[in-house]
Amino acid sequence: MLIFQLSDVWSKTYPDSHAGVLVVRDAQNPARHALLEKRREALEEELRARYSGQDRTSLLNNPVLQAYDAYYRRFKKTYHVQLQLESILFKDKSIPTVAALVEAMFMAELDHLLLTAGHDLDSLRTPLTLDLATGAEHYTLLRGELQAPKAGDMMILDNEGIISSIIYGPDQRTQITEKTRHAVFTVYGPAGIRAEDIRLQLEEILENVRVIAPEARVEMLEVFGGNS
Fold this sequence. Notes:
This protein has seven helices and eleven strands.
């Protein structure tokens, strides 16, 4: 069983925040999956209907986007999931078509708007720790660039280093690949994001994964932090 722990400094700094973890074993990660593609297309149409008539300003009335906007503005950044949603709503773009496990994650992320990262379980050196960046650390981003996290940003580490941070996203070392059969999905929930909403998003990721791999099994589905 994967061990996920919270550092004392994280708990003291972000007492009203949460993190969710889903561990799935015996999955598959094909480049494309026809049933998942149909599900993605249906979600895109549902999102356009859900937010019909709204502009960028009115989107920020959404309490989930408000919570992330408040967090990102501390670091002079814009919540990138909101930008992705806007591209679907206002530019007629599609949810990125990538390897199926990652697409399953993206779909749930855009449905619920909660920041999510995916990792190959076999690449991790557990335990995982939710911590606070000092700004002196470094890790290699998905695109291969070495990056120092923002001081004060939430980050998750394993025994080899950072695997993700809110502001800069997931690392390259533990990324999901075509060989991934056991995956970990983590959701960051800053203050204002409810534990029950994180759980719902994790359950939707699992539902999407089981479209690809009906035999996939859950090792962990849990929300940490706050009053959960």
